[in-house]
Amino acid sequence: MDFRLDTDQRALQSAARDFLTKEVSSTVVRTAFDSPDGDSPELHKKMAELGWLGLAVDESLGGVGYGPIEQAVVCEQLGYHCAPGPFFSTACLAVPALVALGADDLIAPLIDGTKRATVAWNLASVVDAQIADGFVVAGGDTARWFDRSEVDVTPQPSVDGTRRTGSIELKSSGRELGPSAELHYGDEARAVDLQAAYLCAELVGLMQWALDTTVQYVKDREAFGRPIGVFQAVQHKCADMLVHTESSRSAAYYAAYALANGLPDAAFAASVAMAYCLDAAHSVTGECIQLHGGIGFTWEHDAHLYFKRATTNRVLLLDSEYHRDRALRLDPAFRDA
Question: Pairing relation of β-strands 134-137 and 117-120?
Fold first, then answer.
């Protein structure tokens, strides 16, 4: 088995990295962070033009026709740049949900960037509610679609200003889409397992930035006439950051691979990745702040942006404790015993 990305996937990775390096500066992220709604409309429009919003959607539905691995590749790069805007809620939450529910007519406006959407499992806390044009509500026995005009949104305080949440109140019965079981973690729930794999890929990007930035800093920062990177305690922390990052990358991409190839352990792999990556990203981005010392705690340094994103992501698709329990329940070694 070849664990490397293939030629096309590496080309996509390089193109995504180049585009985001050019388009998503610290200034862009901070502007969205300080904006009223955390949005970055121009960035979202440009990503739509690149086809990223429909990267893993079949060509018959207007998508690019790639799969979960390619989507994960882009999500990792978005995480590395802490990109703001509703890409994740639209392309990684709403689109897989609508594909699973067969709501083909609602997908095209999301892919071309004319509309944004999100998924609501809990009406009291909905990611990107303030900028969504549509909502997939997964409560009860039936999933329903609500246009923005059919809901009232109340913004909430958010740790991450680039990934806000809000509560919503439904003003109509909406449009029936299908069984809501498609959007909850059963033994086989492809939509939510895809969402989990994409979130883990984004977390890998956050960790890689934190690792790269920290390693460079400890090479440059001197204490007692020597770079602080020569001290063993600092090296141990950087080594732990590397282990967490690479282990998370393996777990995230195996989950995407399993989903892309319909492997029987795909759901198990998705929850294993979530159980590990959620905690690892919180630890790695936290260590980034610690190893930067005093400057790491300041508003001017970008480390807090990554830590806040990792913190917000810890509860976006249920927490690591839930996914550890689910992984144990789905583990073939336990299930078949």
Answer: parallel
**What is the average per-residue pLDDT within 226-235?**
97
Q: What number is the average pLDDT over the span 199-207? A: 98
pLDDT band at 137 (very low <50, low <70, confident <90, very high): very high
How far lies 281's CA from each of 3, 208, 247, 256, 310, in Å? 22, 9, 11, 18, 6
User: Pairing relation of β-strands 142-147 and 175-179?
Assistant: antiparallel
Return the pLDDT at 56. 97
Q: What are the φ/ψ torsions at residue 177 (nearest 5 degrees)?
A: -110, -40
189 pLDDT tier (thresholds 50, 70, 90): confident
Q: Which value, in Å, is the radius of gyration of the alpha carbons in the chain? A: 20
Ranges assigned E (strand) in 112-174: 117-120, 126-127, 134-137, 142-147, 151-155, 165-170
Give, for 306, the enclosing helix (H) or strand (E): helix 303-313
User: Does the pLDDT at position 289 exceed 80?
Assistant: yes
- Distance from C-alpha of 35 to C-alpha of 305, rounded to nearest angstrom: 14
User: What whole-number distance in Å separates Cα of residue 44 and Cα of residue 115?
Assistant: 10
Place of tokens 């590397």: 242
Reading phi first (left if > 0) and then psi (alpha if -120 to 50, else beta), residue 62 is in left
Domains of the chain with CATH codes:
7-183 (1.10.540.10), 190-335 (1.20.140.10)
Taking a C-beta distance cutoff of 8 angstroms, is the pair 66, 58 a contact?
A: no
Helix, strand, coil share of the chain (percent; to 5): 60, 10, 30
**Mean per-residue pLDDT for 251-271?**
96
Q: Which runs of consecutive H residues, i.e. helices, occur in 152-265?
A: 190-220, 232-260
Q: Please name the helix (run of DSSP H) or strand (run of DSSP E) that holds residue 223, with its range, or none.
A: strand 222-223
> How far apart (Å, rounded) are the C-alpha atoms in residues 248 and 200?
8
How far, in whole angstroms, is CA 7 from its chain's centroid?
Answer: 24
Flag whether pLDDT at 206 surpasses 80. Answer: yes
